[in-house]
Amino acid sequence: MSGPEQGRTTSSVRPYVITRGRSGSSVSLPWETLVMASGVTPPATLQPEYLRILECCQGLLSLAEVAAHLGQPPPVVQVLLADLVEWGLVETRPPVPPAERADVSLLRKVLHGLESRL
After folding, report:
1. Which PANTHER family match (predicted)?
2. How far apart are the C-alpha atoms of 65 and 98, rounded to whole Å?
3. Residue 4, domain member (yes or no)
4. N or C: at which end does the chain have fewer Cβ atoms within 10 angstroms?
5. Is the residue at 41 inside a domain?
6. CATH code, domain with 25
């Protein structure tokens, strides 16, 4: 294959078609929300975009990572993931709060200490 089609990795279907014109949902999903397939067997009539999300979500991924894997804008993936959450096909975990994240200055000190020993 050559020409402009060769490097194409994203769908030629417009995002508003994929979401059926919806730009939001009843489930709030920030981009850093962690998602994972629940293991429930999806219905055979599920759109291909939903199936691709379920394939990606076999392990924990953030919503932003799923969007990157699919080559779709995060707002589109938010709508689709919200549907999957409502249908029980995807489970979510909240992102790690900033207070529980590692202190960057402490990590730098540890790194410098390790480097000085090498």
Report:
1. DUF742 DOMAIN-CONTAINING PROTEIN
2. 19
3. no
4. C
5. yes
6. 1.10.10
Give how many domains the chain has, as a whole number: 1
Question: What's the DSSP call for residue 18?
Answer: H
* pTM metric for this prediction: 0.64
Three-class secondary structure of residue 36 per DSSP = strand
In a domain, 34, yes or no: yes
The residues facing 93 across adjacent strands are 34
pLDDT along the chain (118 residues), means of 10: 48 56 69 89 87 90 91 86 91 76 80 85
Range of the domain at 99: 15-117
64 within 8 A of 58, measured Cβ to Cβ: no
How many Å apart are CA 64 and CA 5, to the nearest integer? 25
Which pair of structure tokens corresponds to residue 45?
Answer: 């009539």
